[in-house]
Write a structure and sequence with these properties.
The protein is built from 3 helices and no strands. It is mostly helical. The chain has 2 domains: about 70 residues; about 35 residues. Helix 1 packs antiparallel against helix 2. The longest helix is centred in the first third of the chain and has 38 residues.
């Protein structure tokens, strides 16, 4: 292989990566517009919150996968991420569980 061939392959790879970043950026802009559009709809609060959380989850996933390069990580990072997410959800659920039925609360 010549250095010219390597340079051309490298330039094509960079062009492909930039194209992916631009597509993700446009998707993030579109999802932001969806968020703003939904805010103008007269939805019930539960539905509005559900839609907002769904859009925020998709946007966060796009940022994490592409801009933080998690899409190309090994499986170990996913295991750590899943364990962290499970613990996060458990900690979020803890006040709801203790408040609703008094479980773990001694008076």
């Amino acid at each position: 292989m010549t250095s010219d061939h390597i340079t051309v392959d490298h330039a094509a790879d960079i062009d492909r990566q930039v194209r992916v970043y631009v597509v993700v950026f446009v998707a993030l802009l579109a999802l932001t517009l969806v968020t703003v559009a939904v805010s103008y709809l007269d939805l019930p609060p539960a539905m509005a919150i559900a839609v907002a959380l769904l859009v925020a989850t998709v946007k966060g996933s796009l940022v994490a996968c592409y801009f933080m390069h998690l899409i190309s990580e090994k499986k170990l990072i996913y295991v750590v991420l899943v364990i962290t997410a499970i613990k996060f959800v458990a900690l979020l659920a803890l006040p709801a569980v203790t408040h609703s039925n008094g479980f773990w609360i001694d008076e």
